[in-house]
Protein 1
Amino acid sequence: YCVIPKLRGKYRSRPFEEIVAEAEELAKQGVREFIVIAQDTTRYGYDLYGEEKLSALLTRLCQIESVRWVRVHYMYPESITDSMIEAFAANETIVNYMDIPIQHINNRILKLMGRKTTKEQITELIQKLRDKIPDLTLRTSLITGFPTETEEEFEELLEFVKTTRFERLGAFAYSQEENTAAARLAGQIEERIKLARQERVMEAQNDISAHLQKNKIGKTVEVLVEGYDRENLMYFGRTAADSIEVDTVTYFATEDEVLPGSFVKVKILDADSYDCTGVQVE
């Protein structure tokens, strides 16, 4: 269903030393957060070194002076190893945030998508991650209306969303991409049904997010300052639970002048389904 592998070709890892050298140079320029990202970061190293190297890379990045956060995106569930989980648990610099695109939870749909995991393996992994990594923020992405998806299979996905309670979730209606196997499947779903299913998933997630956000009121969080919002007359930034551009924002008032790239403590005073508002505290 995804045309990216055809466009980009086989997975190609950059040399370990090259990545570290680039990261060290960025740190010298004042970068405080590294985002490690690839089509599938969990596959890093296999083509060059014949083994998983992501955990070693993350550990090495944490040793670079002045870097405060290391964040990882796009960790496919079938390739997450115990050594990766241990790297997260052992290094405070690696934020407790995992972006794990699962796309669906019904076993028939997962197989049709070409996914290499089952519902049982996914649920077991999520429980393991939450047990091993305290205060973990889990982000995932889902597809509704994949060809031949029945109402019952969609309801299974919706119930999974409600019970798993992901901290971050995006749902997308299936798009019939040219030159993909899924586009040639019989049983394409009507657009209105795909969109209606997407809306139901996002409504459920909105309720979950609102509840999780309300639990933050009264707590003090660390915020990486990104700028000043002249409309709201407040600074804004992200917590360790928020990645750039795709997640929530924390707005805060302060009597001090703060610079983008600095870290401040903010007490949360209010929250809606996605954003928080607070005040800087010493």
Protein 2
Amino acid sequence: VDQGKLSLDDTIGKWLPDLPAAWADVTLRQLLSHTSGLPDFTQNPGFGAAVGASLDTPLPPEQLLTFVYDEPLVFPPGSRYMYDNSDNIVVGLMVQAATGKSYAEALKEQVFTPLGLDSTSLPVGVEMPEPTLHGYDLDEQGTPQDVTDLVAAGWAWASGGIVSTPADMNTFIRGYVGGKLFGPETQAQQTDLFIPGGESGPPGPGQNSASLALFRYETPCGTVYGHTGNTPGYTQFMVASPDGTRSATMAMTLARNADGTPAELQVLDALQRAEAAAVCLALDGS
């Protein structure tokens, strides 16, 4: 958008005419703000079955959305907020169409290299670089099971497939929020309007609200901007102050969401309290 290759008002139909006709008028702005109404491919039973049948070999990115091609829009585009993994996949495909490069190449050229993120990548398979912070899930007896290399990153692709380190996450969120990747006019469009209650799952600390590929967390210690998210074995949190000079990142080696069991919600509550404390420490001027 900053380079003029895309407009926030560009539609899916303009760049990806082979996607379902019902999606054609959805805009990049609606995709980035998760107000598109697209059905979430990760919630489709067919997708779950495909992952289970081929954990370490994902489908090509162009095929991830095919599981919901026949599903209707969940709501009229622009009418409400719903975090949606399909939105992120479509954005990745639009980036590819606009740049003529793979999404991984575009990320390297426009994000990884400018910010010096030497330990960040968008892999396809299950291989993880060493040393690796191992991720876990609990079996029915509550015993931790290592799921670090259980599922290929390509099954998530542009919606959680990046592998990074806490240090690189810290550098990224400072640069992203601090305006090192695009100019003030584009940044103003990103931060002009936030949707109250919008969160990326799991919720972050304080009052959450959503804008264009950015979330705001209003805490008793101050306001920060960033993102939360998880994949099997991991829950992540990264935020920065409005000027990008102070930041906090956290990584938990369990995936936890707000729709979990009471025991899982206890873990999520502890994580959110730790995140709030990290925000206070980050914003402390001492």
Protein 3
Amino acid sequence: GVEVELMARPMAGIDLFGAFGYTHARFGDGTTSSGADVSGNELPFTPDFTVSFGAQVTREVTSQVSLYGRGDVTAYGAFHYDEANSASQEAYSLVNLRAGARGRLVFAEMWVRNAFDARYVPLAFAYQGLAPSGFVGEPGRPRTFGISLGLAF
């Protein structure tokens, strides 16, 4: 696999960032799992790619206070939940946003994670008989909102 990360500041107060990862993780010839040949199958929980990118804009209001806004997107390629590649999660992406004010010693911000409420199951395990699909999964976090306050010293 390979991973590339880039960060840039095209002008004061604007930060751009991004990353790309690619992997071709497969079981080697002669690999078995629970007695079944899984040679050539994709490794569980290993997407072929991950991509993230975003930007942050910061503006000084006074010499002591700055305002900022940030947005980022992370995309995950499809992946399988088991060695047999019998169940999988389709590719999905998550958008996160935040905006706030920062002083020398304090900050306050509002944020939203998974802004478009993407539905995904990042973790699932084979469990025959409990679920119709034969898998029990943990749903990904839904859209969440919050306010953070902080004090630095």
Protein 4
Amino acid sequence: MKNNFINLTETQKRVLEIIKEQRAYAIFLDMGVGKTALMLSLLEYLMFEKLENINALIILPAQVGKVFQVWQKEIQKWDNFNFIDFILVAGNADKRKKIISEKKSSITIISNNLVGWLAKNSDFSKYNFIIVDESSEYKSHKTKRFKELSRLVKDQRIYLLSGTPVPKNWMDIWSQIYLLDKGERLSANFYHFRNTYFYQFKDYFWSMKKGAKEEIIEAIKDIAIFGESDVSLPPVNVKPIYLNFTPEKQKIFNSMKNNFVAEWGEGEITALSTATMINKCLQLSNGMAYTSENNYVFFDDTKLKWLENFVKTTTDNVLVFYIYRFDKENILKIKGARAIESVKDVDDWNEGKIKLGVISPHSMKFGGNMQFGGHTIVWFGLAWNLLNFLQSNKRVWRRGQKHEVDIYYLMMNNTFDGYVYKNLIEKKLSQEELLNAIKIKK
């Protein structure tokens, strides 16, 4: 029987040698580099070569553990890891208590939202090896999850993993590094860190001082590594698609844009601020608009018809990312469409059984390996979240993908779709610059 042992890349080997000696370290390498296999290799080394008694806690976004089961699958996939026993702490409170009281294992996997609960219901100090997967989830020093974990981490080994550690700006790095060194390198106080490396303008906006990024990287270079993967990926083709409203509907859209109100048929929507107006316009571009939290009205089906025709004519399976709930409902009416919301859905996608996979970038942005089921992505709409775009596209464009990846962005002409595209894809315009640029008043 042929052995199935993982072969680490040169980047993985180099980082492995570093973290063998480092008890606290941040691995901020590109998505798809194989950070999961890297950490399992470290566990294997410590358990079987160093003969250390390891009780590991892996903290991750809920969907990575429950839906994609990234760590579980990686452990079971390779012969040099599949002896490692693990438990997933999930379910209601009673079920979780039963799991942690009855089951013993080398690895405990838990959602980052349940760390505080775990500490209250077990001896947290018994975990001597902590992995924080997708550590950008800890980018805010104000969140409960950061405060809990920073209080609980003492002298354990701790490793942070993220392909997007600074999804918004470099202020996001402070709380992550604090988990490693308690403020030794970037200050024990966030506001002191901010005032050191950033300056304030326009009352509440902050920008980096000249050379600050290089200074931050220099300060943390002994406990963090940044860089791209040495894995050779196929080319990726970005394909913006511009569509047009009919003149009548463009007039209605312009009314919302200029007057903060739009009326048509049975529909009527209003906006009370510039930001709300922009959000309503983005909804109209996708074909509908919310009139309340759970109610919406139909406006246009231009994007939907394009997608339906595209799916009919392409030979590849298509993964479409939707922004709004009404997008999902409408797209699922297309023949061959299926929502991807469970591990079974992900497996079926990778086996080529789903012609049109319908997926949310909000719930599925982390950890999913979906490179085997297709190589075509369509963004049905756009929203202000760079992290979602970067992480979501990497579900398909990652190690193991054998084809060129095509990414289509559906946009309506003469709308705000183009502004968002420039911000997220071309990175030429910030959200704040947009709000200042349009200078619209009710």
